[in-house]
Automatic annotation (TrEMBL):
Compositionally biased spans, kind Basic and acidic residues: 332-351
GO molecular function: ligase activity
EC primary class: ligase
Organism whose genome encodes this protein: Podospora bellae-mahoneyi
Keywords noted in UniProt: Ligase
InterPro entries, per database record: CoaB-like_sf
EC number: 6.3.2.51
Protein name per Swiss-Prot or TrEMBL: Phosphopantothenate--cysteine ligase cab2
Region (Disordered): 212-244, 326-357
Length: 385
């Protein structure tokens, strides 16, 4: 990998202006300060120990429609990629700062929390009124429990939640800036499913959006509708002309600024930055991943398709040929030699059930290897300078 050289200059004026505008207009989450203190202590602890540290972002970001939020737009992500990756990073010796969507999957507990069975189904009554794991589950549970306890007892895992897109961006910026002193040893692995659109605060209703005019009727004296109000009541321009315009909810969203440039150039200029690119159309995946790398000048884009994301991903990084990482179609790692096709699999050719093996068990060692090369290259550059 040829790492992009971190720029010494601050992000371009336009990006800096967009950043100021966004972060001033969108209030921080109420726990930001507390989270930053926890993150600072965690980062300093591992920095002193000379340990590599990864920020893993995970899960979907919500787009609130109201300031006192009753309704919001969400996306599909349950946080599987992030939570699973976090476990393999811990296994590879990294300290993990896990920034995740509240109530999405967490490392270790994921094996039971969102299972199709209720977690109580994994338990049975033991002797003297105790509760124990069912015999058939006990072996795996003990293994997971030991790994979880080890991570917790050695302070290797810090878990911080977010909910909305603006919470996420405030937290990401704060943590990335705190990671600056780690230099190239810091890794940012951005697996969260980040909203591309949002309602800017100046257009957001304070209270719950009403579906009837009962409140208006309560506030106003009833009066005969004016001619223009009558005209506005119905229109014939779409497929449901019988629904009065005043009763519809037309949602008008602005684009969320892309802060990857600010991240690369300003927030964490020496850390290795890995972003994910999610698409649904196999024909454009690699092109979009390359476009993202070119635009933001970071270090690795991992492309994945919604329908095949547990079977294959593609690594796109500067100076390297694209690298596909796949679970063999039997679903197990030792089923067959790794398929060598250089393009996306046909989703229809894949078995319906999920693979038994976890693709993150292949992704993380490959990322860690690139990280090692990145650190060496950056050290070499420092010696030359
Ligand atoms: O949770 P799972 O169900 O396991 O699913 C995992 C996943 C598919 C969500 C994950 O593997 C993944 O692809 N995550 C990234 C999804 C995403 O936001 O893709 P994107 O193409 O919209 O954005 C690409 C990159 O741009 C992201 O790394 C994001 O950090 C960044 N971005 C996106 C939007 C935005 N407004 N600003 C950004 O900086």
């Amino acid at each position: 990998m040829i790492p992009h050289t971190p720029s010494e200059s601050p992000p371009s004026n336009l990006a800096a202006l967009a950043e100021d505008h966004y972060f001033n207009a969108n209030p921080p989450p109420k726990d930001l300060q507390k989270h930053m203190e926890l993150a600072k202590d965690f980062i300093e602890f591992h920095s002193k120990a000379g340990r590599r540290l990864v920020l893993v972002t995970s899960g979907g970001t919500t787009v609130p429609l109201e300031k006192q939020t009753v309704r919001f737009i969400d996306n599909f992500s349950a946080g599987t990629r992030g939570a699973t990756s976090a476990e393999y990073f811990l296994e590879a010796g990294y300290a993990v700062l896990f920034l995740h969507r509240q109530f999405s999957l967490l490392p270790y507990s994921r094996h039971y929390s969102h299972a199709t069975d209720c977690f109580l189904d994994f338990l049975r009554e033991g002797p003297n009124g105790s509760v124990v794991a069912r015999d058939e589950d006990a072996g795996k549970m003990l293994n997971v429990l030991r790994k979880y306890r080890e991570a917790r007892d050695k302070n290797m895992l810090l878990v911080l939640p977010f909910v909305s897109i603006s919470d996420y961006l405030h937290e990401l910026r704060g943590i990335a800036q705190l990671m600056k002193p780690l230099g190239p040893e810091g890794l940012l692995y951005l697996a969260a499913a980040v909203s591309d659109f949002f309602v800017p605060p100046e257009r957001m209703s304070e209270h719950k959006i009403q579906s009837t005019d009962a409140v208006e009727a309560f506030n106003k004296k009833p009066s005969k509708p004016s001619a223009s109000e009558e005209e506005e009541t119905f229109d014939n321009f779409d497929s449901s002309p019988s629904v009065p315009r005043s009763k519809r909810l037309v949602v008008d969203l602005d684009p969320v600024p892309k802060f990857l440039k600010n991240l690369v150039e300003g927030w964490s200029p020496e850390g290795m930055i890995v972003s994910f690119k999610l698409e649904t159309d196999p024909k454009i995946l690699v092109h979009k991943a390359k476009y993202s790398l070119d635009r933001y000048q970071h270090h690795l884009v991992i492309g994945n398709l919604l329908s095949t994301r547990k079977w294959e991903v593609v690594f796109v990084s500067p100076g390297n040929p694209d690298k596909w990482i796949r679970i063999p179609q039997g679903g197990k790692l030792d089923d067959a030699k790794e398929a060598e096709k250089d393009e996306p699999l046909d989703p229809k050719s894949l078995p319906e059930q999920e693979p038994e093996a976890e693709i993150e068990s292949l992704i993380i060692p490959a990322v860690a290897e690139l990280h090692t090369k990145y650190i060496k290259t950056m050290e070499g550059k420092k010696l030359e300078a």
